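Study this chain:
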Amino acid sequence: MDYEDRFYNGDPVECVTFEAKGFVYGPLRVSYPPHSMFYIRFVEPASRTDFVRDKIAIFFIRDPRDILVSSYYSFGYTHGFSPVRQIEEQQRQAQGLIQRKTIDAYALEAADATLNYLRTIDRLAQACNRGIVLKYEDMIYDWEKFSSGLTRYLDLDPIVLHQIYERSRPLEREDLTSHRHSGRPGAYRNKLLPATVEALKVIFAPVLRHFHYEP
C-alpha cells in the first residue's frame, strides 16, 4: 500500500489504516516537512515508538552526505511536480530556494535536519522488536548481505528480488538531467568542497560511527 503515491497524485484517501497482516506500507519518509498533510496523516502516526514496537519494519538508510547531494539535485532541478496544486506550489517554492544556493551552502544548511532524520530512524529501529536497518551502500556493493536482510521478515519472490537488484544498479555515466543522477555511493567526495566535507564529518560524527560509515 503506497499511501505516499496516492497523496502525491491527489487520489482520495479518506482514512489511513494499517492492517495487521497482508500489506506492506511504504515508503515512509521521515524527512517530510512536519506541516505537510502527508506527514500529519501518515508519517507522524507511524513514527511513534509505541506504533512500531510490534510491527515488522525495514529501515533504509544512506550515507547522510550522499543524501544531501542527491536531494540538492533532485529537489532543486530534476524532481517532477505533483498534480496536486497545493503540493506543487510547495515544491516550486522549495525548488526556487534551492536553486539560489550553492550545493555546499545547501548541504551545510540541511545537515542538522538530515542528522535528525537518521536519529529518528535509529530511535524507531531500537524500539521495534522485528526491525532491521538496511544500508543503500550494501544494496550496491554487497547484494547478498542486503537481500538477506530484506528477506528476513518479508517473503519475496526471487523474481522480485532480481527486479530490485536490476533497478538499483548505478548508472554507468552520471546524468544530472535525470531524477536518478548516478546512484553510486560516495558522490559527496566529488561534489562538495573539502571544507564542507570536513564540516559535515563533524556534524554527522555520531551517526557515521553508529551506522559504521567512514568518517
User: Anything to note?
Assistant: The mean pLDDT is 92.
